[in-house]
Amino acid sequence: MTTEVDSFGPRRVLRPSAKVLPEQARAHNRSLVLQTLYRSGPLSRADLARETALTRVTVGDLVAELIDEQLALELGTRVDASRPGKPATLLDLHRDGHRIVGIDLGDTEVFRGALIDLDGTILERREIDARGLVGEDAAAAALALTRELTAIADRPVLGIGIGSPGIVDLAGRVLTAPNRGWNDLPLQARLQAELGLPVIVANDANAAALAEYGFGGASADLMLVMVGYGVGAGLLLDGTPLFGSRFAAGEIGHVVVGTDGGEACACGKQGCLETWLAVPRLQARIAAGEPREAVLRQAGERLGIALAPIVGALNLSEVVLSGPIELLDGTLAEATVDTLRQRTMEQFHGDLTVRLTSLGGDIVMRGAAVMVLSARLGVS
After folding, report:
1. Backbone angles phi, psi at 127, to 5 degrees
2. How far apart are CA 339 and CA 331, in angstroms?
3. 91 pairs with which residues across the strands?
């Protein structure tokens, strides 16, 4: 039987940290125990009770349930001669007890996938050629890659997370992904029915933002800008993903930057951020003989123009860039920072950090793992 999973709602906090109302208590307290073990384990039952402010009886019941489900395990007794009485038994999340399948459908040439453990470590990788695939052919390729990875899993699969290009609603339906010819595609429901496993589909930039928060040490107020074939962004506010009323929050690639025109964009406008910043555009200008540093500086300035009102409105503390390091690092990033500082109040935004992701090309796959961890276990 297929297990249904909760999608990321507009107010879904990734890291529970306190008790809630009685009618919500059991599921929340279970997530609270798992989250505490995930971030702070190994711990004894008494440690868990102190850390979570739950009663020892509640903790004991929850731990027994988690051990039965192979989500937690006992590690043995604590060695501490200074503590009187019987040594406590230490518990931890069963970090090697399950696998997560993470899929990145954002590249124009290949679909990438990986088997990932609960700590976000990539154990196995697979790729499938995706050049020229659109419509049902592209969906079939995504299914084939996912099926291949689930077949080689050496542990039970906790869930499948997929980062897709385009605008994706909270039910995992791809409302539009022009480069793949997808419109109103129920990708999550289709794969879940085919594979009989929990599946979560989200926009790839949103998945990347979750990876930075879950595994990259990013702050809770974050904007991640993905630069590739197009330009998109994922937003977290106080650790909560931001989607927007039509699920298009972060779609900054088709915002016109400046009033001086610019190249024609695929959307029909001129001077969209994508025309200044997308990787094929940068490479084409440099190949045509324009000075590399000037091209990158101009791209960084346009990115700064697009980001300044967002940073100002949301009071973000961190902007992370994801894409080819040889293009984004150095001149482009520096020009982005300079432009942001020129266009925002130093009193409130002078300490804004703009940096490159440390997660490299695995960022979307690892973000897909964060989605599964949050939806299935309530942890990140």
Report:
1. -135, 155
2. 12
3. 43, 74
Higher pLDDT, 192 or 316: 192
Asked if the peptide bond before residue 178 counts as cis, ω within 30 degrees of 0, the response is: no
C-alpha pair distances (Å), 161 with each of 122, 211, 213, 352: 14, 12, 16, 31
Tell which wins on pLDDT, 24 or 30: 30
Give the Cα separation of 109 and 341 in Å (integer): 36
**Residue 41 near residue 93, CB atoms below 8 Å:** yes
pTM: 0.88
Looking at residue 350, the DSSP 8-state letter turns out to be T
- Can you give 67-123 as a three-state secondary structure string? HHCCCEEEEEECCCCCCCCCCCEEEEECCCCCEEEEEECCCCCEEEEEEECCCCCEE
Angle CA 63–39–223, to nearest 5: 135
**pLDDT by residue (tens digit) across 300-325?**
999 999 999 999 899 888 899 999 99
- The CA distance from 274 to 228, in Å, is 9
Q: E-assigned strands of the chain?
A: 43-44, 72-77, 89-93, 99-104, 110-116, 122-129, 157-164, 167-168, 174-177, 182-185, 199-203, 222-227, 231-237, 240-241, 318-322, 353-356
Q: What angle do CA 216, 66, 147 make, to 5 degrees?
A: 60
Pairing between strand 231-237 and 240-241?
antiparallel
> Checking DSSP bridges between strand 43-44 and strand 72-77, what pairing results, if any?
unpaired
For residues 303 and 291, the answer to whether their CB atoms sit within 8 Å is no
Q: Which two tokens stand for residue 3?
A: 């297990």
Tokens at 371, concatenated: 């989605």
Q: Which residues pair with 236 in a beta bridge?
A: 222, 241
Q: How far apart are CA 241 and CA 104, in angstroms?
A: 19
Look-up: residue for tokens 């009663």?
A: 55
For the beta carbon of residue 237, count every other beta carbon within 10 angstroms: 14
Please list the helix, strand and coil fractions of the chain in percent, rounded to the nearest 5, in that order: 40, 20, 35
Both tokens of 38, joined, read: 């995930």
